[in-house]
Design goal:
mainly alpha; 1 helix
Length: 70
């Protein structure tokens, strides 16, 4: 194998590595964004659950009784 063949193969490998690093960085950014969105949604769900529990407690009548045909 000649020196120029080795140099071209090394250059090709370096290019592949650079492209893979870019893809990995892009995927990492997407994962971070999804985790942030998931955390925000979980927090909001907790807030809504708390609001629902407070509203249920203020009503005071508890769960709705079953219909008479039960």
């Amino acid at each position: 194998m000649s020196v120029s063949d080795q140099d071209s193969r090394i250059a090709e490998l370096e290019l592949r590595i650079a492209q893979q690093e870019k893809v990995i960085a892009d995927l990492n950014e997407m994962v971070v964004a999804q985790w942030q969105k998931l955390d925000a949604l979980e927090r909001r769900l907790g807030e809504l659950r708390d609001e629902f529990d407070e509203a249920s407690a203020l009503r005071g009548d508890g769960p709705e009784p079953p219909p008479p045909h039960y």
